[in-house]
Amino acid sequence: MKKYLCFLFCLFLCLPLKAQTDVIKEVFENLNQDYIVEITNREIALKGLKALKEVDKNINIKASSDAVFLYQSGKPADKFEMPEDEENMQAWIDFCKKIIEAGTKVSEKLDVLDFEIPDRFAKNVFEGLDGYSHYFGAFTGVDENPVKARRQFASRVIDGVLLIRVLSFQKNVSERIKEAVEECSACEGLILDLRGNHGGFFDEAVKSADLFLDEGIIAYTLSFEDATPEYQIATSGDILQSKPMVVLLDGYTASAAEVLAASLSEQNRATLIGTKTFGKGTVQDVKKIGDERAMALTTSFFYTPSGMKIDKIGLTPFICTSDGEACEREDRLNKEEDIDRAVLFIKTGM
After folding, report:
1. 325 and 195 both lie in a single domain
2. Tens digit of pLDDT per residue, the chain (350 long)?
3. In this structure, are 201 and 266 located in the same domain?
4. Strand 217-222 relative to strand 293-303: parallel, antiparallel, unpaired?
């Protein structure tokens, strides 16, 4: 019995390691189906195959117009004809896997560390995308370092004016905003401080804007230029009862925070004070791949009620507090003078 168990154990060790999920296939499928910017199968393949050299520096990949050449220690090891049909995704998936398999046959290091290749393939492809799409791999070295947590929500009253600071649109933040406003019914107005807010859940930003609007478009998204817009519409009821409102911005106000600020500004419900914003107007969908991997993929663009595209443009405030003359993007998260300026505007309208 012991000899039989030993035989099975040795047999298991000799079997090639196989990922529980087909990461390479998932990368091709998701980029072809959902990614907002067009990317060819050839581009995906050539970017991803750089993973071989990352694992073994003696391996190199060179591409001509119609073929890929595999080199080992500077010497040609194999040649692979590219698929004739650029649109045949499965042919390109098989093409990549064939090259990876050939690499493991000529490189002992690739053969031992073959389980790393799919993650590194995906990581290389995603690094060349729009800057907001990310791949989260299953082994150390691909995962991104976690961001140190900060207090995401705070409120206080300054000279009869309610100040609410929101650093991220996490779940239920719209409810917290509503509670803070309702608890300060005697306040003269509201300052919504979105400085340093990188975004978060789009629906929470929409719900937050809806708290102060009676009607109209809050924002809409487009997956591509000719797609049908998906509108977010305000419901009736302004919890602030038309009292004056200011939204504070800076160079790190981005994404969903910009959507909220733009909707309130374009509906003439709030005045924007601060500096030009970051200009991230894209939506990312997070897709799980098995139990250990995930990809955040850009799938659509934000647009303001007037139809302005925020991405790479940003918002310019009505009152600029920048230290420079051109209202350039600045980090003003802890600048108390911006709050003082907002309080003055609430009280005087100037």
Report:
1. yes
2. 444 444 444 443 444 444 446 999 999 999 999 999 889 999 999 999 999 999 999 999 999 999 999 999 999 999 999 999 999 999 999 999 999 999 999 999 999 999 999 999 999 999 989 989 999 987 534 444 444 445 689 999 999 999 999 999 999 999 999 999 999 999 999 999 999 999 999 999 999 999 999 999 999 999 876 789 999 999 999 999 999 999 999 999 999 999 999 999 999 999 999 999 999 999 899 888 887 899 999 999 999 999 999 999 999 999 999 988 889 999 999 999 999 999 999 999 99
3. yes
4. antiparallel
Q: Is position 115 within any domain?
A: yes
Which residue, 345, 305, 312, 339, is CA-closest to 155?
A: 339
Residue 140 falls inside a structural domain: no
The one-letter amino acid at 69? F
Q: Do 158 and 273 belong to one domain?
A: yes
Same domain, 59 and 169: no
Strands of the sheet containing 153-158, edge to edge, are 153-158, 161-166, 190-193, 245-249, 271-274, 319-320
Q: Give a yes or no: residue 2 inside a domain.
A: no
Residue type, 224: F
Residues 74 and 219 in one domain: no
Q: With respect to residue 282, please indicate whether it lies within any of the assigned structural domains.
A: yes
Q: Say if CB 238 and CB 214 are below 8 A apart.
A: yes
- Domains: count for the chain: 2
Cα 203 to Cα 271: distance, rounded to the nearest angstrom: 22
- Three-state DSSP state, 169: strand
Domain that residue 116 falls in: 21-133
Query: Do 329 and 264 have their domain in common?
Result: yes
Extract long-range pairs of 221-230: CB within 8 Å, 24+ residues apart: 221/283, 221/300, 221/301, 221/302, 221/303, 222/300, 222/301, 222/303, 223/36, 223/299, 223/300, 224/36, 229/303, 230/300
127 and 160 assigned to the same domain: no
CA-closest candidate to residue 224, choices 155, 168, 303, 290: 303
| pTM to 2 decimal places | 0.79
